[in-house]
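Allow me, if you will, to draw on your knowledge of protein folds for a short while. I have a record of one protein: its chain in single-letter code and its fold written as discrete structure tokens. The full record is reproduced below for your convenience:
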Amino acid sequence: MLTRRLFDVVVVGAGVVGAACAFYAARAGLSVAVVDRGPVAGGTTGAGEGNLLVSDKEPGPELDLALLSTGLWRALAEEFPQSIEYEAKGGLVVAAREAGLTALRAFAATQSAAGVTCEQVDRLADLEPHLAPGLAGGIHYPQDAQVQPALAAAHLLKASGAELFLGEEVRGVLRGAEGAIRGVRTPRGDIPAGAVVNAAGTWGGHLAELAGVTLPVLPRRGFVLVTEPLPRVVRRKVYAADYVADVASGSAALQTSAVVEGTAAGPVLIGASRERVGFDRSLSVEVLGRLAQQAGELFPVLREVRVMRTYHGFRPYLPDHLPAIGPDARAPGLWHACGHEGAGVGLAPATGALIAAGLVGERGSGPGRALASVELEPFRPDRFGAGAGAE
């Protein structure tokens, strides 16, 4: 069996979170290897819409991370103009009735106090002329943005200079003399490293098991409809207020709420659905019908538009809706950067910067300086306990 050269860190996962970890680790001066059982962005990243959102997050640790990540994404967009298709389109959350609008305004007030830019909108047609008439109002979030997630992952990996080992499934971990994690084992050979970063997305729980620890990551399936190319009938990411509740829900049952956004290329993307059905990849006509109906209720102009294709993927869900970020006290040498559910693209730069700063022990320099105020305790990988299981 082939043994590769020694790296400072090996990142397991070539999605956008793993790519961000590799990018910032390399910027910190570390030699990096990235290993993935498939291609770049072959998992959750490749099935995502590329949303960079603050609008759907209540005040707390995830919002803090998202706010810092928005700044890092802007910096990356300046460094890689055009190549990641960054679009500062903004988001619009709408309420159909006055009661819902009252609740939405109250939620926005708490976000504003936490640093989110929120703008009350009474004349929705000024921002989105094709919205259904009669809606009570909404909140505009100019900080919301979008990237093309697969392109972003590819460019971050290229810029990192990391050595890629694609199409190699991690089958085990390497251990040092005192039992610390010191690399990974694949069918093609060992990849020794000073540390291992678990950025395996929905398979993050499996990698944790290989290291002898528990991380209760579960897949949460979601579908997206893609319309034929259109003029820019939807200018922003627009969704109904109940989407926020669906994101925060821990229910395994099917949930759908209208999320509609235009793209620079023309097609409109329509989501969002959530359900825990394991890794069942079968097509759900029920879900697609619900999404189409709800999108038509928000934007009547879409009722006569053709859907050209659909796709679906699995979000890596943890029971408390917070990712696992940082070193695992139960397995020295193992670091986690997974469990972001549907926010992985948005939170990727902050996650990568935190991991890199921790690996080199410098949270107060470079990108880590901006993250120094982030409270890491809520993201501790060992917060579920040695024998914790999924809910």
